[in-house]
Amino acid sequence: MEKNLSSLKILNIIICLLLLTIFVIFTRPKNVDASTSDEYPSIKLGYEFRKLEFIFNNNTYKEETNEIVYNVDYYLEEYKDTIKFFSETFGYDYDEVIADLKERENNEEVFLMTNIGFLKDKDGNLLNFENFEYGLIEYFYNLNSLNTLKRTTKYVPYEGNASYVENLIIYYSSIYTNVDKTLMLSIGAAESGYYQVKYMLRKNNVYGGMSSNGLIRHNNIELGVLSYIRMMSKNYYAKGLNTKASIGRVYCPVIENGIKTASSHWINLVTKAENKYSNYTYEVNINDILGKEELA
Questions:
Q1: CA 269 to CA 281: how far, in whole Å?
Q2: pLDDT at position 71
Q3: Tens digits of per-residue pLDDT, 144-165?
Q4: Under a CB-based contact definition with an 8 Å cutoff, are residues 126 and 119 in contact?
Q5: What are phi and psi of 7, to 5 degrees?
Q6: What are phi and psi of 259, to 5 degrees?
Q7: H or E element at residue 28
Q8: Environment class of 106 (CB within 10 Å of its CB; exposed 0-12, middle 13-18, buried 19+)
Q9: Is 52's pLDDT higher than 50?
Q10: CB neighbour list of residue 179: distance below 8 Å, 6 or more residues apart
Q11: What angle do CA 81, 82, 85 make, to 5 degrees?
Q12: What is residue 41's predicted lDDT score, i.e. its pLDDT?
């Protein structure tokens, strides 16, 4: 019995070897000219690797996340209206801005779509912002500090309606995502009489921001509202002040029994405004701001 089993094992081995030999014979590639064959490219593997690395570094495709990533030119075209809007808001010529962004690209090797201006931290690393618009806005503030492009600081007092201001607040609050849109609308409304107090609108200031010279004046309403939302994002919400009480303790404080607290009158005004804005539609994009119909 053991002899029969041993013979069977040997037979199985022989059959496997025969099958393997047949497979090798019939699947072996034909003789080819290695200098012209597609199967055996003459390009060195090291060169092929560098070419693939170049493609990946230039953000054409990211397989591991199944996400297509485009280059700077794509985003300049895709966000043309947004860039034009903020160029005008900050007082820069659109064509000069585009030229500056392309020049910055030429000086860098890596690109992040959220950092169109290639802004870096103190260690020289590219910053990664929350979204394209956030990075674009920070780029313009960076331009302000560098003074590398000519800026037109034309003062245009706002004479429009409240709905445009409300849309600006909603739009900017979708960019600075840590702020609460309803509360931003409500604080602004409490400060500016629901965006109708003329002397505030003439200074493009809807949030009551003050300096040593009185009410702060902004060049246009777009910049004034942006300054408000950006300030709330960076100076309040980013520091954990994200409720009416905690914000009001700094924004509109009073001293009660030796303790600094939010003004109860201010809290009541904001709360009343919240009742109005809690049912607002909060989907506002750049086309809504520009009054353009979005193409399907």
A1: 21
A2: 87
A3: 999 999 999 999 999 999 999 9
A4: yes
A5: -65, -35
A6: -120, 135
A7: none
A8: exposed
A9: no
A10: 173, 229, 232, 233, 237
A11: 85
A12: 35
Residue 154: CB atoms within 10 Å: 9
Name the token pair of 170: 């909603």
Q: For residue 68, which of 57, 79, 59, 77 has the smallest C-alpha distance?
A: 59
pLDDT at position 59 is 47
Residue 286, amino acid:
I
For residue 216, count other CB atoms closer than 10 A to its CB: 16
Q: β-strand 259-262 against 210-211: which pairing, if any?
A: unpaired
User: Which residue stretches of the chain are H helix?
Assistant: 2-27, 45-57, 72-78, 80-90, 94-106, 132-146, 162-175, 181-192, 198-201, 221-231, 244-251, 264-277, 286-290
Mean pLDDT, residues 213-235 taken together: 97
> Six-digit token pair at 135?
């990075």
> What Rg value do the Cα atoms of the chain yield, rounded?
31
Contact 72, 102 (CB under 8 A): yes
Cβ neighbour number for residue 219 with a 10 Å cutoff? 18
Report the C-alpha gap between 188 and 190 in whole angstroms.
5
> Picking from 14-18, 69-73, 214-218, 288-292, which range would have the lowest pLDDT averaged per residue?
14-18
On the question of pLDDT at 67 being above 80, the answer is no
The structure tokens listed for 3 are 């002899």
Q: How far is CA 92 from CA 27, 96, 155, in A?
A: 66, 8, 14
Sign of the Cα pseudo-torsion (258, 263, 265, 268, in order) = negative
The DSSP letter of residue 235 is I
Give the per-residue SS3 of 87-145: HHHHCECHHHHHHHHHHHHHCCCCCCCCCCCCCECCCCCECCCCCHHHHHHHHHHHHHH
What's this model's pTM, rounded to 2 decimal places?
0.76
